[in-house]
Amino acid sequence: MITTASSVAIQGNEEAYALLKWKASFEKQSQSLLSSWNGSDPCSHWLGIACDNSKSVSLLNFTNFGIRGTFLTLNFSSLPNIRAIVMRNNSFYGTIPKQIGSLSNLDTLNVHDNQLSGFIPKSIGSLSKLTLLDLAVNNFLGMVPPEMGKLANLSFLDVGVNKLFGNIPHEIWHLSNLKYLAFGTNDNLRGAIPAEIGMLGKLTELRLEHCNFTGSIPTTIFNLTNLASLNLNDNNLDGPIPPEIGNLTNLAELYLNDNNLNGPIPREIGKFVNLKVLWLQGNELSGSFPREIGRMTNLYQLDFSANNLSGRIPSTIGNLSNLAYLYLFSNSLPGSIPDEIGKLHSLTTIQLLDNNLSGPILPSIGNLVNLNSILLHENTLLGPIPSAIGKLVKLETLDLSQNSLSGPIPSSIGNLTELSELVLLSNELNGEIPIEFGRKFQFQSAHLDLKAIEQIYGDWKKSYIESPRWELGQAASPS
């Protein structure tokens, strides 16, 4: 608490008095972090405080301090010249008092990642100079106050990861200076995404993920040609992906996954020459795999998994020289794996399992020297396992099970010293287990299921092979 002596010392400095009274309400450990707060002048090197030319407090910045306390004892009216309150990543709890609306000069309010709760005060709408408002990652509940629509200067608004519910008020869609807008991970928001969203022409990032939005994607959203990131994943959106999506030529990230979208993937995605992340998984998309994908040469992650795609993987996929993650599993993709995939030297993960792929695994797979995971199981692949697979020295997981592969296991697999899981069950493989398995490395697990086993590891091996799981890592070395 503030002693009488302290009160006398700071008499005449209302700002110092208000701040010290606020500090006194913090938990003891938090108070010790602010030991520099003493005397009567907050502008004399008080931690987290900055002042303007008139020696008045203009900034409170406690970013990553770990302060635990509330705002209830802070007399906002004693800080008339404050322009920014930045409390990111602390442990503030309780409500934001409605008196915050008295801070007429405030342009930044950032309380991201705290434990604040209660309703967002309507008085925030009085902060007419506010340009940044970040209330994300807290426990705010209730509806988004329509008074936020008065913040005409706002360029950044994030209320994501809270417990907000109801419809987003239409007043929000009139904040024409917004560049960043995030409502994501408020599971009880509801309703359709309104056509008015197309009025936010300055937006560069829009995050509406993990909510409960329904209906189709409004075509007006594709008027937002400055968008670099669009995230609508994990909602209940339905209908097709409109071809107008091709208007968003500045996109670097597009997340439409885990909805109920249907119809084909529009060919217009080939206009996304700047795109790095494309997630369309977990929908009901059907039809062909667009050849235009080959124009997206900056693509780093591509995920079309868990849809109903039925066209062949186009050879143009070989143009994606920056691709590191390729997920196409759980579709109905037919035909062979194109040889051009061997050009994707940046690839670290390839998951094509649970499709209708046929034909051989081509030796060009040996070009993918950065691969650490190959999942090709549950297809109808034919022919031998190419010895070139032994070039993939970073490989940790290899699953080729439930295919129609034949011939012996190539001894070159012994080069894969990082391999921890090898699954070859339910194929037509024959011959011996390569001696390199026991001499060069040990697995966490190997599931082999060979037709014929030579006497390499001794009589003990038979009991392992007859079971569905063979723990080579636990087995004794052959004598």
From TrEMBL:
The UniProt record lists the keyword Transmembrane: yes
Organism of derivation: Stylosanthes scabra
Name by which UniProt lists this protein: Leucine-rich repeat-containing N-terminal plant-type domain-containing protein
Pfam families reported for this sequence: LRR_1 (PF00560), LRR_14 (PF23598), LRRNT_2 (PF08263)
UniProt lineage: Eukaryota, Viridiplantae, Streptophyta, Embryophyta, Tracheophyta
Residue span, Leucine-rich repeat-containing N-terminal plant-type domain: 13-52
Disease resistance R13L4/SHOC-2-like LRR domain residues: 171-280
Keyword tags: Leucine-rich repeat, Membrane, Repeat, Signal, Transmembrane, Transmembrane helix
